[in-house]
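Query form — protein RNA polymerase sigma-70 factor (ECF subfamily)

QUESTION: What is the three-dimensional structure of this chain?
INPUT:
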Amino acid sequence: MNTIAALKQGNLLVFNEVYYSWHKRIYYFILQKTKSSFIAEEVTQLTFIKCWNYRENLADDLNIQLQLFRIARTTLIDFLRKETVYKEKVIHVIDKYTLPVDDDLWGKLAEKELQVKLANALKEMPPMRRKVFEMSRFKGMSYQQIAHELSLSSRTVETHIFQAIKQIKHYLGFLISILAWLSRF
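ANSWER: The structure tokens for RNA polymerase sigma-70 factor (ECF subfamily) are given below.
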């Protein structure tokens, strides 16, 4: 039985073989494109999730390698597109509500709430993650400068920053959606 047919039938043993055969190659393919271990990990996992969830749609006449790399490439494009749109919305909303507005009570309340949420998110972070994030975002230091000062690798600094941003997104998520809704009025 060929690999595609076995996957279409839901054979987990074959899927595991495909996963272990191609996981590292997909990861390094994405890492080469993005230079980010965080993105490479996320996109690689999403690639295999999509492969399994949409296994019935795999083409019988194409080998699994070609199809996996095609899924990985489109998943990366989707991932980067979503991140860009999300960042633009967050920056727009934060910029709108962090500017001093004398007559806008809602703007002042939103700014205060945003500051409180950010402070809470920072308090919840592990000490090293918080320190790395503050050095990057509040002191304007580069990843290399932080790595040198804290005796860490640049990759470790990058991981701390991504994890900090992910944690902040979690804390600010609901507030950002409320602020976006209020900005329509």
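ADDITIONAL NOTE: The CA atoms of residues 104 and 123 lie 29 Å apart.
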